[in-house]
Amino acid sequence: MEEERKITDSLVTYLEYFARSGVTHLPAGGGGRLSGEVESNVYSAGVGEKSVSDAAVDRASLLAAVQDELGDCRRCKLWEGRTNIVFGQGNPDAVLMFVGEGPGRDEDIQGFPFVGRAGQLLTKIIEAIDLTREDVYIGNIRKCRPPKNRDPEPDEVDSCMPFLMKQIEAIHPQIICTLGAVATRNLLGIKTPVSKIRGSFQRLDHAGGVMVMPTFHPAYLLRDPSKKRDAWEDMKKVRDIYKTFI
């Protein structure tokens, strides 16, 4: 009964998302494949399996082009104190992408996202939903560490966001999980606290309507372990929807 309830809840979430994306009907059968009309609507909304033409694209090359364009970035003042630009890491053909706030001390030293204590917890979270870091892609709102890990200033976000959006465009994930307030607020363009919208899929309209699940940042979970249960509930919903795309 518990497994049936989980499947039903996931199906309801999935159908609600289709409705918000403008899909008005689904075929009664067809072996799991959407009809041509519905498939077109779903893909245009950024939902559904990756198309054959998408699969043929060398997404690694697209990401490399974005990184080349970023270059030795000096578009904002953060370059003065950084050790490394932290571009992002993971599977360029990922179904699921995580977006955090930005690099901390360990990330700045190593040049990779989420490699410190918070990163170790994120790795455990990913593994708990039956995936590995190699299955997903991990990026950040900003790519340089700020002084004392402070929140990003508007000009810093404005400098970095175009490159994050190009990464999302290159990868074309079906699901994005935003980690914490900074990532959620800046990617979705909202001011609603994460605690108010976590656990509910949102829609990133300026990226084809990709599904976005806001949840708590792993660093916050380390400070307040009582929120781990809420984060786990969020990730179970991500896991269940993920399974519909593979």
Strand and helix map with partners:
Layout: H1 2-20, H2 36-44, H3 52-56, H4 59-70, E1 89-90, E2 96-100, H5 105-110, H6 117-128, E3 137-140, H7 154-171, E4 175-179, H8 181-188, H9 194-197, E5 202-204, E6 210-215, H10 218-223, H11 228-243
Parallel strand pairs: 2-3, 2-4, 4-6
Antiparallel strand pairs: 1-3, 5-6
Helix pairs in contact: 4-7
Note the main attributes of this structure:
10% strand, 246 residues, 6 strands, Uracil-DNA Glycosylase, subunit E, 11 helices, alpha/beta
Give the biggest beta sheet: 6 strands, mixed
Count of structural domains: 2
State the CATH class of the largest domain. Alpha Beta
- CATH level-4 homologous superfamily of the largest domain: Uracil-DNA glycosylase-like domain
How many DSSP H or I helices?
A: 11
Question: What is the number of E strands?
Answer: 6
Question: What sequence of helices (H) and strands (E) makes up the elements?
Answer: HHHHEEHHEHEHHEEHH
User: Kindly state the mean pLDDT as a whole number?
Assistant: 85
Order of the strands making up the biggest sheet: 1-3-2-4-6-5
Q: Which consecutive residue ranges, at least 5 long each, have pLDDT under 50?
A: 27-50, 52-56
- Work out the strand percent: 5-15%
- Approximate helicity band: 40-55%
- Fold-level CATH name of the largest domain: Uracil-DNA Glycosylase, subunit E
CATH architecture of the largest domain: 3-Layer(aba) Sandwich
Rg, please? 18 Å
Structural class label: alpha/beta
The N- and C-terminal alpha carbons lie at a distance of 24 Å
Shape: globular
